[in-house]
Batch of 3 targets.
Target 1
Amino acid sequence: MRLFATLVILGFRRWSTYRLATAAGAFTNTVFGLIKASITVGAIGAAGGTLAGYDALTGATYAWIVQALIAPVNVFNWNELALRIRDGDIAIDLARPLDPQFAYLAGFLGRAAHQFIPRGAPPLLAGALITGLALPSTPLPYLLGLVSITLGISVSFATWWLVNLAAFWLIELRGVLTLNVVAMGILSGLVIPVHWFPDWLATIAGLTPYPSMLQAPADVVMARAEGTAALGILAVQAAWLTGVLLLGRLVFARGARKLVVQGG
Amino acid sequence: MTEPIIQVRDLRREFVIRSPAGRLRRARTVVAAVDGLTFDLADGAAVGYIGANGAGKSTTIKMLTGILVPTAGTVRTCGLDPVRRRRELARQIGVVFGQRSQLWWDLPLAESFRALAAIHRLPDATWPNRRDELVDRLDLGTFLASPVRQLSLGQRIRGEIAAALLHSPRLLILDEPTIGLDVLSKERLRVFLSEQRALHGTTLLLTTHDMDDVQRLTDRILVVDHGRLVYDGTLPGLTARVGAERVMVVDLVEPVPDLGAVDGTRCVAVESDGLRHRLAFTPERTTAGAVLEAVGRRGQVRDLAIEEPDIEDVVRRLYLAQVAADGGSGSRHRS
């Protein structure tokens, strides 16, 4: 546990060295938040004032919360592991007395912890000023929300881990990584809430871990799901996390057995 | 302890190389990077593992540390099966891959040490002392707080070595640690490594292209060529077998066409009508100082240089000697 904490802190520190990148990212998230909130509100207006339980205010809130979570959940890119497999630095990770997946998860959470406020606060602040935010007034949704966000980040890690492992078998990974970004972008609720999906698409989304990354934490934080419903969401997230992490361990073990570390 | 710290039996590792053959088909070639290695390493030994590029040195090291799975044969390192018990083994060994970094690139060196202490679960009561010792002996103090990406190569390698030794491993494996370092940095590193061995009895396995490393740091050498062990013994034994000599090149102020016999040396060439002489010698028979003194008595020395035999040359000669000994049948080697 102490080791895990140290590695989380290390991940946090690594990212804290890139202040300008963080500021630029926060600016981008906020600008896109404004666009997304406007489109969401527009869509809800066109649908007659409510759409799948979202009114103008909660729809805008959803858009802003998702924008605030983009960076911590790491929707768009994580290829650290793939690069290390490709250039052979994975040998260093394997020469350490710890489980690589455990270590990288800690680093990923540390990165997320660093991004949480500097990348999350600006979109939420802009949202509060521009459209207003519909947030619960009791502490419980926030507490459960924090758990749900941590689970969402971890599910994102587990998925990225699995996708990165393709580097054991493929040299050029851009296609696989892009596929994951596209799937995550659509199925996680990044663009529009999963609740707006037509049935067939909602069914597909439900068969993937993606809704556990953004839709689930947003539902819990906004208290769209409360009490046992919220706990149910956490349980689904935990189940996906366990499953995808385990699959990742299996694939990693297979990959490591056929590992070729070139060039010294 | 009498059990060898490393035990290798008939070790073999193949790689499959696929190359395009025709439009769709790809030819599949199996190449053995390591081909039937057998050796033991005693606890506390200092061994140089040498060979040309692609001889199989790094592949062997990766199998010793459990990173690569052998195709055939067995390895035991510190009494453990490296692949099965890789993490357990990692606590007992320190590895430096000269080409790769185990430090956190964007953080200060001090943070890397803290992380490694946590990774190796070193007690808070003891590891700072060990760190301070390494910082002091490797002279890391001035750049301990700089991000690793800003360090010079020499600084980074010292940091790498400290990182590999922080948990006081029984076995230190260095894969070309002095590559790219200047003479002074190499020298400081050698002094440090000798000192650590004397102090802690660490077993050392070193791959290198540098004959000086071998001479200064090791008491036994293993030469590998095309994945096979072609020599196992001492450096004097190797030089005796293949005549790996150092060559002293002396430039004189006034030409001396014939220096006469200089004890323990062999005249390789006289150039520029006696202005430059090349004298070959082996460190076992005489020293550079003695040769210089002898030459100085016969003419005024303007400049001198010492050419080291390179590993490739030694290996090539070893191979030729082997072929000659086998009566011209070089069939044990992959062609």
Note: Chain A has a mean pLDDT of 92.
Target 2
Amino acid sequence: MAQLGTHLDRPIVGATPAARGRRAWTRALDDSRFFPSLLLVPILIFFVVWNVVPLLWLVGVSFYRYKVTSSREPSFVGWENFAEIFQSTEIWRTLGRTLTFMLLSVGLATILGVLLGLLFWGSQRMPGRRLALTLLFTPMVLPPVAVGTFFRLIYEPNFGVVNYYAQQIVGRRFDFLGDKDLAFFATVAVDVWMWTPFMILMTLAALGSVPKAELEAAEVDRLPWLQRLRYIVLPHGKFILMLGILLRTIDAFKTTDLPYLMTNGGPGNQTELVGLSLYRTGFEAFQMGDASSLAVVTLLVAIAFTSVYLYVLNYRAARVEMR
Amino acid sequence: MTSQDLSTSHAALLRDAMAGRLSRRQALQRAVALGLSAPAMAGLMTAYRSSPVAAQDAPATSPLAGKTIDMSILGIGGWPPSRLGVDLATELFKPYAKETLGYDVNFTFEESPFDQLFQKAATSLQAESAQYNIIISDSQWLGALAEPGWILQLNDIIAENPELQIEFEPAAREGYQIFPDGSDQVWGLPQEGDTIALFVRQDLFSDQAERDAFKAANGGTDLPQTFEDWEQIDIVAFEKIAAHFTRPEQGLAGTAMQWSKVYDYISCYLYPFMFSTGGEIIEGDVGSYKIEGVLDSQVNADAMALNKRFLDYAPNGATNFGIPELVDQFTTGTCATCFQWSALGPQMMNQKAGAAAGEADDPSKPVTPENVMIVAPPAFKQADGSLKRVYALGGQPWTINAFNDADHLQVAVDYMKFWYRPETQLEFARRGGNPSVKATLDDPEFDTLQPHFRAFKYMIREGRSRDFWHDPNYAEMLATQQEAFSAYLTGTVEDPMQALKYTACEQQGILFDGERTEIEPSEACNDVSL
Amino acid sequence: MNETSWRQHLYHGLLWLIALLFFMPVLWIFLAAFKAEGLLVSWPPRWFFTPTLDNLRDVFARPGFWSYLAMSFVLSIGAVVIALVVSFLAAYSFSRYKPTGTNFIMFLLLSVRMVPATAVVVPVFLMYSAFGWSKTFHGMLLFYAMFAIPFSLWILKGFLDGVSERYDETALVNGGSRLHVIFRVVLPQVKPGLVAAFIFNIIFVWNEFLFNYLLGGKGTTMIPVLLATGVNEGGSVDWTFIASLSFIYMLPPILAIFLFQKYLLVGMTFGTVRGEV
């Protein structure tokens, strides 16, 4: 508390006469019961203009047939757009593919991230650690546009660098982005490369949240390594890890740029994810009604994800309070 | 006098004529002295008609005199003909406008690749924005841009301006100007004409050892050597040639074409197989369009199978080849022949821009201008034994933003008039652009101006190239078939008929939903998927 | 050298190797930025070569490059600053007064941020077209501000909840006004949160392509659009241009995570996890 006192005294003692003169109206402001709401005015403006209005617009248009490149006036079609979504095998398959993409990409990134995170645990005295971590974490701050475009060159079968080493090691080249059996996994691989560092980061954070005392006790008890993880690290770290997985899941669901630039959804429709379908419906076909109804569906999915995310967060908060 | 010199003198003559420095009689005398052909003279006299001295847009009367106008052109990124349209605006039209029309104009160029340009244009035009005053549209987009009233219908403007009453190649008129098909509504003016050509590594084909080996393996038939030889090559003969040069162990492939899912890449190179063997893609007119039962024909399925067979003779990764990838492949020497838009002649030959013919742009590349020949792509033998070629038409029209204010519209029209002056067309051609003006193509010198012009002219005439739909729903229809064709090419779908049925059902549905046809997709469509 | 330190060296060497492995594709892009055009498509790939600065010069000479780069800076910094001010005020209110609907609004804001960009852009595009905001500078700026608000709010609210209310009370008792409390007492306490929110939202806006492409006009174009649309030149793929432009554009984010490494965790988890790695 002593530290707090000194911190607070300074500005008040130093207040200028002008500031004291201003105090009258600021006081009035403070006492006003509108003050808390006043602070919220800017965000509410943003919220209404950029969230509520577009949301209403979106829901509204989703009941219309509205094609931008048509001279026809938009016409109300009721639930037809939604019915089409639910009847369309293509859209269900795209959603299924997106789900597979999510599971594979997040799953692999998590496994790799946790393993590497454990490996990096205790690297505090590593020489050049800050630089090494910067290099390690670089993939997740890169523009996806650049990554997507450049991986086309890296994967290229005739002069791509990956194929050079494939040729050296396994004796053949692969058409990573053109082969129907490989393209999907080649896309997943890039996503895993970009986001494994994030899972390493989360693992390190999770490990950092384990109380030192408990670890030292385990050291003294000579508890086997696996049991330490199971009984000491996991109970403390699992919430942060869970958050990491959820955030990744939500992000993977949104993936659009990568397949758009690397494969354009091909070969055939092997890498067509829901974000890409939305883009095509909205901005290639300019079918705003169809696009809006599909957007409403993905919005609901996203809200479902977010709810799980918040549930885990609150659960964690509750646990913290219990302790 | 070489053709190069001749065209330079011709251009100088035209310049003098247009600037009003020569009387009609003097010009004629000089033209005769140069030995210009009759059509070129006719072109010269046209220049006379529109000469600024006589024209109505003299400085004193130009409503824009003294003003400065900023014009923005939206065009196709990395596409040399689009770039030429902008370069010529700045290099030639700007000084012309200053000198003759009395106003200052500055051009800026905004660009996007083929597959992204329509979004860029449409998102801007949807907001009724005039930020792009002139738009170079791909030919299929005409309907999608015209239908919502985003671009200007040009019939009235053409009627008012004799300089724009030009006879274009019929294929260019159908492909770049008219919407709806068969009507007389004009929405665009040809910017760049384009057809598919075959690029051949002449150094390989003329190699005596190659010729002997090919003869030995093919009952004495020689490799084609000249343009005329290639005219007689049909797809069966071509397959043998492609097979002959397919040597993966040497890093050489027989041929390459566009098979990528992006934009219209597969479609444009698969259509020739369909069109030339009697396949159709759509029947009827607005209100009665029929695709189901037309596109999904056995002829078209066979065409797809034949097209796919050429993947065996292509370099690795061919199912991702689009326009730019083919340039990289061919110029790095990975294929003996290559199908490509003729507009990319200079780039495919690795020819340095603006330099004397024959000089390589990138000397480190194995392919140089002198060892490339550009010929007509293979024909298809008909039942009666005759040869037929019906390839896809490329190229783009100029279109004018409908939301332009009067000043910008005036400059756009002035530039269009300038664009079709014989002098401008000649300069465009000299830099490698494909003109669509019939008189320019008729000039006997035309074939020799650029190595690719002979093939271009051959292919744009006599119905050898045709465009596909200009319908406002083109983007959806295209995306559907690109997906289906790509699925078949890459083996996701085994049966070409399944890909065709799926495409036909979807496209019929798209047109039906868009109220472009009264024919609904059949019940059978419910069971078709990729 | 004793055995422990030998093993320690081996361990650190392994960690360095892993870090370099992850960096390898980026290194390949960076090397490409200094290669002559032919070398990029050469077989076998070349790790050692005589570097050239021609590609970078070409990028600098491209029409529009400098204005796009300037726009990248202006839009990312401008939008994030607006977002931080707005979210800080809101976070203070949410944290201290807990008005009804706090959780709901926080939840909704976050949900919208979790929706695929392609879904968000549809209604915003329609709205912008109708209001005439499409292609305008303020339209783009405020949209990005909105884009940055949810995470800023979450990060700052998390931090403010961690600042004991006794600070506020003590300051008020000592005669400070509310505004004084907010800006002079509480603000300095959440500086790490501000830095984290600033850096990470900037990286998001900096790298953003789709909204800029569809909602932005020629006066508001940022570099990622140039990266996606300037792919081709002279008919073929312009790899040297992409590589050198990527190189230039990737440097600031990489520099940021080097300089602000201790905020990395906070930023990447939107403030829900605090601490350093």
Note: Chain B has 23 helices and twelve strands.
Target 3
Amino acid sequence: MHGKALPYLLLMPATLFLCIFFLYPFALVAFEAVTRDGAFTLDNFRTMAGSWKFPVTVRNTLLLAAIVVPIQLVMALLMASVVSRLETGRSAALYVFAIPLGISDLAAGLIWLAIFDQSGFLNTLLSSLGIVERPVMFLGYQSKLTIFIAVALAEIWRATAIMMVILVAGMGLIPKEYYEAAEVFGASPWQRFVRVTLPLLRPSLQTAIILRVILAFEVFAVVAALGGTNLPVLMGETYNWQFTLQDRNVAAASALLILAISIGFTLFFLRVLRVPKEARI
Amino acid sequence: MSAVTDARVTTPADARKAGNWLLTATAIVLSVWVLLPIYLLIVNALSSPGEVTAFPKRFLPSFDLGSLSFFINFAGVARALWNSVLVATLTMILAIGFGAPAGYALSRFDFPGKGTFRFLVLMTRAFPLPLLALPLAVMFIRTGLDDTAIGLALVHTTLALPFAVLITFSLFSGIPVELEEAAWTLGCTRWQAFRKVILPLALPGIAASAVFAFTISWNEVFAAAVLTIENRTLTAFLLQSLGESPLYLKFAGGAALVVPALIFIFAVRKYLFAMWGIANR
């Protein structure tokens, strides 16, 4: 086989595939967002932003990300620290913590519906403890706060595993000698965590945060399962524009907005958590 | 952080013991947080329809198959299950078929354009990919791919392909190139060396990433709901019947989504780091 051509031949299928099914639809969605009946216009964005639901949709999505992601970061660090320190049962703990990784967001929504539903397990627990007299309607249209809390819990439950696995892998790369040196100089476990683990974990933290933030703006099925239309989020509204309101161009504008927010945050975290070349392990 | 031992504890042995105890306790609490919600869903799925809607709830399943048999016999469910399996299998084949050669090329050759390709693959991670289903819906109608398993599988492959490329890249990188060179000196062609030496070594990892691609497709909701009408997958079916379906149908459906996912994650547990940890660097 001719050495020069072989790598390109091997890369060709994947490259062609990504051009057709990633770059091309991306261009298409951008084009559809700024045109209507073939003419350039910003009307799609105006229609989207003019909808009465729009401000509350944006607020819900951003607020959800702002609350969920920091909690997940702390929990993922906790899980990763536990996994990397456990001597017995390490792989069992890792498997259990990683389980939500394989669970669909729709299934996660349904799991938490079993808890928060009016005839669900939370009401059963509360009434058997005598805290409530009759089952509370947590997910009704009048209880936006409890819907929000339920969605946030379901998201925290479902997507912490992604960050955890990235951080466990990152912690595995930190040389043991650093910890030994810190211990020799009398650093407490907490100091070792703050002064050694966190700084050296920065590349993994960056990846974990970026990936998780992007996923947070994509929140859709969890909300659909728990809140229906009572808690509008960006992805759900995009779906609505496409199907309920049958307006492809506004749906494309909405999709472009989600893309823009995601890219904006990716660039932000790339910059804020930048790791200088010489500081990498 | 929980794994921090108390600074006031004097002897190192005591400190270690207290630390270990705290570590185990934290691991158990976190495991319960992950497992309890799944258990509650399973309890619902294994109860009769009457028990699911009754209040208060029992925290133990009655092992009544009423809900599950109602779910299986519900119009459209069997077909949706079949569609989910079909789409996920196609996604798995496409993702590995396109991804593994690219991963091999990246691990074995240095060539101009390598950086660009890696960038293209990594870039897909910064985008909410399911959104690309919106413009593709139109393209699929034109090409006759709308509402087909292969059409949806193509979109799911954009989600799974980057993983397949990066995982197989790290797999092949872990196999010494000297093994291949030894086979060449013994008279093997490049293809024979790959098939007889490299492939057997890489096969478990490739199988794991295939399972992973399957899981990604099995769990995906948004693109599935956008692109299928008659041939809905299980996730699309459940999403679109959320409004009208009774609780016991939702919970049985949720369990049908979760149980295979548990098995998938168990099957690939050894490779979780390679999947997420390394693939994200």
Note: Chain B has two domains: 12-67, 72-280.
